[in-house]
Write a structure and sequence with these properties.
This protein is mainly alpha-helical. The chain has eight helices and no strands. The two termini are about 25 Å apart.
């Protein structure tokens, strides 16, 4: 189990630990903010349904799925000379490695199923992004409604909040950082190495070598 799935297990463990940390610290922070405006504190269960938690969580997930989805699509046709994250500049240098084992059902079926399967990774990331974007919007709107009502101001509609600068500030501050991270990975793998990492070129590879 560990040898076959160690990477997924560790990543899932990190996700749960940090998500738990976010929930607890966010719960404490939000209740402090409520106390400052003389509003009733929330229970932990109620906090998990609040705009504060939903918005903060899916605001970040949205940007992650956007990053990975765009990365998957852009690396299909674009290249970066010398980067381990790029396909080779010459298509003739590419070799498709297929290990022995059962061929996926969609490939054997062919037709529309094979076509959809051939783009299923991008489709999945697009769906996850749209779902996260919608939940981010819903949570952010609920949080904004609570804030405005606490100040005695009229609450915006969800449509109004969608086109507000505050909502797009929440999104853009995360989106730009995700593309910065990918850009750094693409460029740094030209010159730097990490022994035994599949994200790195071999130590002896020249800087001009493109691909892993």
């Amino acid at each position: 189990m560990w040898k076959r799935n160690g990477l997924s297990i560790v990543l899932l463990a990190f996700l749960l630990v940090f998500l738990g940390g976010q929930i607890w610290t966010g719960f404490l922070t939000h209740n402090e903010e409520l106390a400052e405006t003389h509003r009733a504190a929330l229970s932990l269960f109620d906090y998990l349904h609040s705009g504060h938690f939903v918005s903060a969580t899916f605001e970040n997930w949205e940007s992650e799925f956007l990053q990975m989805g765009m990365y998957v699509l852009l690396t299909v046709s674009l290249r970066q000379k010398g980067s381990a994250e790029s396909r080779p500049l010459d298509d003739a240098q590419e070799q498709e490695r297929v290990e022995p084992g059962p061929t996926p059902w969609a490939v054997r079926r062919g037709g529309i199923w094979k076509m959809l399967y051939g783009h299923s990774l991008a489709i999945a990331f697009t769906a996850l992004f749209l779902l996260s974007f919608s939940l981010h919007l819903a949570g952010s709107w609920r949080a904004e409604v609570d804030e405005q009502l606490a100040k005695g101001l009229p609450a915006p509609t969800c449509w109004e909040h969608l086109w507000s600068s505050s909502f797009w500030f929440e999104s853009f501050q995360n989106w730009q950082s995700e593309f910065l991270a990918v850009l750094a990975l693409v460029i740094l793998t030209i010159f730097l190495r990490q022994k035994d990492s599949p994200q790195s070129k071999p130590l002896a590879a020249p800087h001009s070598q493109t691909g892993d």
